[in-house]
Amino acid sequence: MARMISYCMRIIEIPMLYLQKRLGISRLAWVFLLPNLLLFGLFAFLPVVLNFVYAMTGSDQILLQDRTFVGMGNYQTLTSCEDFLNPNSCKDDLFWRAVYNTFWFVLLQVGFMVGFALLTALMLNSKIRARGFFRSVFFFPVLLSPVVVALIWKWILQREGLANAALEGMGFDTINWLLDRHWAFFWSVFISVWAHMGFYTLILLAGLQAIPRDVYEAASMDAASPFRTFRRITLPLLMPTMIVVLVLSLIKSVQTFDEVYAFTGGGPGSATTLLIQYVYETGFAGTPRLFGLASAASILLAVVLVILTCLQLWASRRNVNG
Amino acid sequence: MGKAIAFLTRTRGRGDGSQRLHWTDWFTYGYLFLGIVLMFGPVVWLVMSSFKTDAELNNFPPRFLPYAQESVVLDGHKKPLPLFTVTEGELAGTQVAQVRRVGIVSQMVKLDAPDEIIKIKVKEREPVEKLALAWENYTDLFKRFNFLQFLWNSTFITIISTLIMLLVNSMAAFALSKYEFRGRTTVLALIIGTLMIPQTVVLVPLFLVVREMGMINSLWGVIIPGAATPTGVFLLRQYMLTIPDEILDAARMDKASEWKIYWRIILPLSAPAIAVLAILAIMWRWNDFLWPLIVLSRTENFTLQLALNSFQGEMQTQWSSLLAMTVLTLLPIAVVFAFLQKYIATGIASTGGK
Amino acid sequence: MANLHLQDIKKAFGSIEVIKGVNLTVNHGEFCVFVGPSGCGKSTLLRMISGLDTVSSGRIMIDDDLVNDVAAADRGLSMVFQSYALYPHMSVRQNLSFGLENLNTPRKLIQQKIGEVAAMLQIEELLDRKPKDLSGGQRQRVAIGRAVVREPRIFLFDEPLSNLDAELRVDMRAEIAQLHKRLGNTMIYVTHDQVEAMTMADKIAVLRAGVVEQFGAPLDLYHYPVNRFVAGFIGSPKMNFLNGQVVSAVRGEVSLAAGRGMALQADSFDLADNAEVVAGIRPNAVSIAELNEADVTVEVHGVERLGGESYLYTRTSDGSSVTVNIQGETSQEIGQTVGLSVDVDKVHLFDRETGISLRRQQA
Ligand SMILES: Nc1ncnc2c1ncn2[C@@H]1O[C@H](COP(=O)(O)OP(=O)(O)OP(=O)(O)O)[C@@H](O)[C@H]1O
Ligand SMILES: [Mg+2]
To answer: What is the pLDDT averaged over residues A23-31?
Structure first.
């Protein structure tokens, strides 16, 4: 294997040496960049431009020459509502359901996740035994694939699953968790928190460990209570990390699709349909395939993401300077 | 014993020598152990369940350990017969084998008299069980489903995409960290720009591009776009910036070509960063879902994730295969995690996920 | 044969000119040292010679071949870097063989050459270690070995000893000098330490701000510095500078601002009446004298007694400092006022404005 790679590299060296002689060293840099730029150009930059074209055209044809120009029509379809608070009054009611679902999902998921991540990080940062072990306990679900996460919990929540057995054991009636819109939404948020919390715990823990020990020692000399120490010392010093975590989790939460889709399929009804699922179903899973509408919706989503990313860059810069 | 307790409860080593637990310690440990149950519990439950027979899976309330009903082979009966213990009546306590069940009545035979049918009410018997791992859940996957095909697809995509990504990204990172050239800042800015536009918001045009390149319903349609991520370029560039330029100059004086400098000097010296990126890439590609879902629509092209997702729709009642498949899907990640968890943790923390 | 010829070499980074027209010839077998303060462009000049950087204008000739457009690898030079720049992931043996492999040297020959070089530099036992397992001095040897093994036409050294401690530096200095003697190659050596330059060089080029101020043999530079900068840079401890004015050009009389006048040999200097000058006096060209006979009166504010010799750090009434080197011990104490007499044969005179030496060229 190693010999084969070495052999390949030696073969590539021949044209590269020729190019080096022809172009000189500093222009050779472009040769090194070329494969990457090609990939980015084709699969990142070009799609961004095309996305606007799709959003301005209609019909269910994917090829651009078969599509008809509709101007802002797709955006109008998405945003024409009699009452914005009532999805049923909208022309594209599923879109607005997805928007509201996503809004609540993000609010709850980020709130609970960051809250628990902070709590866990604080626990892990106190003087405990086997910290490494506990850290991996909370971290390992991050590595699981979304589908696996969904199935693990689906198995627990199925009609005759562990959760219902526990309920019955305690003398309650069993519940059909995933067929009830509120419970399904709750559990969607729950598994999402379960799966991603460890990642943010890790970042927050790193932030906590960056706080110098002597600050705490000084506080304990002042006989500050643990709670006061947390309020007056830990929290302010952790704030930069908290902001990064918040923004990062917002960015990811808005794009949630995999685990919820595999978990509930967006149901019951459209109770757990999130924005990306709307895009997927409008553009790819449904018939006719409304590429224009899907593109318009993803551009609206992209606007949110760009704002959040700018926030993140701003926050991390402040972090570096502060 | 006393020593062990002292050891376990000795936390918060305070200077005043107090060895008792503070209430905050109780809270901390309580929280952490609850964490173990909540985080590990579901996975353990999944693994346990995957070793249960279909019959056992249908039991409610479920039991923790996998049990299977014992059976015996008796003369005059072709198939092995399930064993029961009679709970009521004159035969209470004896073991009998069930030949068939008719409504609420079972037709049983005694073990020592395999020809003589006895009728016993269903309520008056209890299955004889033993701990047994239902390996057939796993072997069935290979026999009845195209499991190997899915496994191969996932593996192929993961490995090839990771290799391409490592090669292409390290080349770009090398150029961006070690060469002065016009337009370098522009390229860097463009790459930062792609951080803002994840795949999820360009699905439709990406689909067109991939389609036009004839890669729909081909593994390459997942592999190639997957290699275009900016994270790796940043991670590697950051690391390569720490390699002193003098080493490159020394190599140039040693008559090494630029390409040789790249693969004999830069690549080996960036090994730690490349390892981190490789682990991340493997994880991303192995767990990928949305994009394969769009590109791969034929079953024979499915990755493990897609197969799992589609089978959970088709096999609602057949949890045994589904659970076994889930376990096999998470197994590689679990193994990687067990060996490399430190790398992964730091790697993920340093890149901010994806 | 390998001589090096620089013709009007210039280098600009963007709009900043770093090397401003350097002309030099280094003959075959010479040990040439570039010396100058930090940031004066020594490394830049060396890197242009090596081919790692391109020249903005001018010509570089090696053995009368123009090499401006020849890549670093093909100039047949080798270089020892300040940070050694050993390949951290390769063993010492691989470090030495990497360059030879790139030249497609047969494997047997590589082994033989490595053996010879390792024996010469006494690094045989280190051949299978990685650079991180070596001491600073050993790394230095390996770095030199890597340069030697390729049998280059010219060796380039960029401050190779600056990362070593003082004692080791003295040892390595001797070793490099020995190496030069044994190999007989042309060597170009960059340093900012004038002691290194003085002890090792056949020729020294003193650089300041991208210009070669003076190029010549070490003792020529010491005795006949062309300007105040070279005079101050070469020699340790530094030359003392005292302001003065020419009283009479014909008689060679110069009055010192901080003391009486001196009568110099008028025919060794180009003097003009009333010219403002700076007298340069090395610490060993002054001695203690009775106050009433002294050329200069100073106040002692520091004494170093080294046993064999002593240094007085003193200040004149107008604030210029004067270092005095006394053979043997001294009884002077801090705060004392002492008189100094100047050995007029060893005085240098510089124009106060331009800093150019007023001494006549040697015939
Ligand atoms: N790549 C570059 N871009 C812009 N300016 C540079 C560059 N390299 C060097 N310089 C400038 O050129 C001048 C000379 O640098 P050089 O490294 O040759 O100094 P040096 O004499 O070797 O100093 P030192 O003794 O500290 O090594 C410095 O002022 C430096 O700031
Ligand atoms: Mg330098």
So the answer is: 86
* Type of residue numbered B197: I
Which residue type is seen at C295?
A: D
Is A304 a residue whose pLDDT tops 70? yes
Distance C39 CA to ligand 2 centre (A): 7
CATH of the domain at A195: 1.10.3720.10
Protein residue closest via CA to atom 2 of ligand 1:
C13
Report if residue C219 sits inside a domain. Answer: yes
Domain containing C78 equals 4-232
Picking from B142-146, B253-257, C279-283, which range would have the lowest pLDDT averaged per residue? Answer: B142-146
The answer as to whether A60 is a domain residue is: no
pLDDT given for residue A184 in this prediction? 92
Q: Is C43 in the pocket of ligand 1 (CB under 6 A)?
A: yes
The whole-angstrom distance between A283's CA and the closest CA on chain B is 7
User: Is the CB–ligand 1 distance for residue C15 below 6 Å?
Assistant: no
Indicate the residue among C186, C203, C232 that finishes a domain. C232
Q: Specify if C160 maps to a domain.
A: yes
- Res. A153 pLDDT band, cuts 50 70 90: very high
Closest Cα to residue C136, out of C212, C194, C82?
C82
- Measure the CA–CA gap between A7 and C226, rounded to whole angstroms: 59
Cβ-contact B132, B67 below 8 angstroms: yes
Q: Indicate which of C54, C70, C74, C89 best probes the interface with B, i.e. most B CBs within 10 Å of its own CB.
A: C89
> Do C172 and C47 belong together in one domain?
yes
Give domain status of residue A56, yes or no: no
C361 lines ligand 1 (CB under 6 A): no
CA of C223 to the centre of ligand 1 (A): 30
Distance C44 CA to ligand 1 centre (A): 6
Question: Domain holding C286: CATH number?
Answer: 2.40.50.140
Looking at the structure, do residues C293 and C180 belong to the same domain, yes or no? no
Tens digit of pLDDT for each residue in B174-218?
999 999 888 889 998 888 788 777 888 888 889 889 988 888 889
Q: Are residues C172 and C313 in the same domain?
A: no
Closest C-alpha to ligand 1, atom 22: C43
Q: What is the CATH number of domain B71-127?
A: 2.30.30
Find the ligand nearest to C34 CA: 1
The mean-pLDDT minimum among B52-61, B213-222, C305-314 falls in B52-61
Q: Are B271 and A224 in contact (CB under 8 A)?
A: no
Please give the pLDDT value at position B345: 65
C216 touches chain B (CB under 8 A): no
- Residue C281 Cα distances to B85, C199, C334, C344, angstroms: 118, 22, 22, 9
- Correct CATH for B145-351 of 3.40.50.150, 1.10.3720.10, 3.40.50.2300, 2.60.40.3500: 1.10.3720.10
Residue spans per domain, chain B: 2-50, 71-127, 145-351
Q: pTM higher than 0.90 for the full model?
A: no
Long-range contacts from C249-254, C-beta under 8 angstroms, 24+ separation: C249/C273, C249/C275, C254/C279, C254/C349
Q: How confident is the model at residue B5 (pLDDT cuts 50, 70, 90)?
A: very low
* Number of structural domains chain C divides into: 2
In a domain, C357, yes or no: no
Q: Nearest CA to B52 among B321, B311, B310?
A: B321
pLDDT at B354: 42
- Sign of dihedral through CA atoms C189, C193, C198, C203? positive
The closest alpha carbon to C196, from C163, C222, C173, belongs to C173
| Residue C45 domain flag | yes
Q: Tell me the pLDDT of chain C averaged across its residues.
A: 88
Decide if C85 and B246 are in contact by the 8 Å CB cutoff. yes
B249 touches chain C (CB under 8 A): yes
